[in-house]
Amino acid sequence: MTEGVVASVDPGATAPPSAGRGRRGRRARRLGAMTVRLLLTLLGLLTLLFFLVRLSGDPAGVLAGPSATPQQLEAVRAGLGLDEPLLAQYAAFLGDVVRLDFGTSVFSGESALGTALGALPATLVLLVTTMLVSVAVGIPCGVLLDRGGRVTRAVVGTSMTLAQAVPTFVLGILLIYLFAVRLGWLPAFGSGTAATLVMPTLALATFAIARTARMVAAELEQVEDQDFLRTAAAKGASTRRVLWRHALPNAFPAVAAALVVEISYLISGAVVVEVLFAYDGIGKELVDAIFARDYPVVQACVFVIGVFVVVVNVVGDGLLRALDPRIARARA
Amino acid sequence: MTAALEIDDLWVEAGDPDDPLVLVRGVSLTVAAASVVGLVGESGSGKTVTCMASLGLAGRGVRITGGSVRAQGIELVGADERTLMRVRGGVVGTVFQDPLSSLNPLQRIGDQIAEAVMLHHGGRRRSHHARVVELLAKVGVPAPEQRARAYPHELSGGLRQRVAIAMALANDPALLVADEPTTALDVTVQAQVLDVIRSATRDEARSALIVTHDLGLVAEVADRVAVMYAGQIVEEGPVASVFQDPQHPYTRGLLASRPVLAAGRRRLGAMVGRPPLPGSWPAGCAFAPRCPVATGACGEAPPIRTSDQGWSRCWHPGSGETTATSRAEEGAA
Prior knowledge:
The structure holds 2 protein chains of 2 kinds. By secondary structure, chain A is mostly helical. Chain A has 2 domains: 28-98, no CATH class; 112-330, MetI-like (MetI-like fold, Orthogonal Bundle), CATH 1.10.3720.10. Chain A has helices spanning 20-55, 59-64, 70-80, 86-98, 112-147, 150-165, 168-182, 194-224, 227-235, 239-276, 282-291, 295-323, 325-330. Chain A is flat. Chain B has 11 helices and 12 strands. An 8-stranded mixed sheet of chain B has the order 6-7-8-3-9-10-12-11, with helices on both faces. In chain B, strands 2-1-4-5 form a 4-stranded antiparallel sheet, covered by helices on one side. Chain B is globular and about 65 Å long. The chains are: A mainly alpha, B alpha/beta. Chain A binds chain B through residues 1, 3, 7-10, 12-17, 225-228, 230-239, 241, 245-246, 249-250, 253, 323-326, 329, and chain B through 52, 55, 57, 59, 81, 85-90, 93-94, 96, 98, 101-106, 115-116, 119-120, 140-142, 146-147, 149-151, 153-159, 164, 167-168, 170-171, 186, 188-189, 192, 195-196.
């Protein structure tokens, strides 16, 4: 490290804040790597999807119906290309995916991808409200878990354990019983209005709140003994300011990283919750399609969910970069 | 004139209140207006704890059990948070040992300095930009406009410590407390940071309490020096007289164990033994087990003897011959 001989000259201490070309080059490389990762993830997902669907039964049998003659069945197979070798089918499937052609729903005759995408916004709304609630409630709970008195910590800690221990579907049923059946405050099921969003959000957020709170508490404990908190206090910052402006922001990148992963888990929780509350999202669409053996729609739904999870992870990575300037430089 | 800092019979302990670990035993120390005091001693002697506890920054589990601390006449022991907030950063600016970990990694350094100004002058952080640039220039940060936008990890250790000093000086405090301000830095950088501290004190008639184990640093910047051992101050006085004619055998040992290039000595006068840890401090004179001139009397707590303009806590003050090393100090002091 070369600190200049003359006190005011200090070369090599830092790269200038924006190092033009190099920075842009690194960003391009990062985006390239990310795209490759995204494509590989999707390829893996599609491969798994293709073979699982083939293992789960004969789509032609469903389509042709139980009373079909072997000749009819054969005709349906040929029509769907199911008489081709498996690998040829796989190649054809991938080709269709590249053209975003998932075929049409066996029952409604509409585009399978259109059906899946049409159900996505409702799920996104549910996920967004769930994340908002779990952050809004989880962070204060985490602070209490870390900073509260003995009684507060015990009460919050027990609540969080309980919240994590109760399965989502049990909680959902309890919520329906309480708020819809006994109190009559909320509709038991349905979608499209704000009221129908409340219970699915609660059912889904409960677990996420507990996870968020625990992460916040753990991260706060990590950050707690850091010298810069003492510096902030030495500047004259209040205990509250030290916590909210210095400790929590430093605890947050790790929490945010975990929250991004949490969204991937929430999607699977959303499937359960949407079915339970008859909430018309992509999870319910998927489950309905599975029971109906509507393979094109199943494939389209899984594809859309897969792309969503990958996109969330990419966005989450960018978010982390924005939150922690050190990451942006450290792993270019 | 009010002293910048008056610590009077300060007792500090940590751990279980029923079985406490005593860290500081009745320390009294005065930093007069416009004077610089060096507080020296080996690790575990309680010098850092004394400073941090005085400002209420010693951390959880460390508590003051007796005594009084006044900064510019404001009592800090038992003070409410509002008073402490006003004193910290406003009356007393603090610089810590490790300049990387003592800066918030997620905030631009300009924002961190601006926060220090804002906490005492109100307004928004952005409105103090001019002051931030002025402070950075004052501590010798080149290109202060641009550097204000840098994050701590983008700066070298020396620059970070300059930033930390700028932050401590943000509200023109009467007293600067610096805890081992150069220990974590490269040797070449140490001298530069020392220059910054010197100009912040001497040139601006600011008082300072500098905690260090570096006697050379004390010789360069301090007017008075206090030597701590086992939670007590064992000797205190003007730097020149303490370095030339140390009264306490521990002070003599410290001075003798300094490597001095020009002195041509082959062996360092290393002290025998290790400093005792808190909780295992001997009764009577805590230094007696390592002391070359200890006698039976040292089993009792030694009396305080005043000498010249200082004092020491020893049964046999000034009884050792002046060593070659301490004579070499005369030049530096």
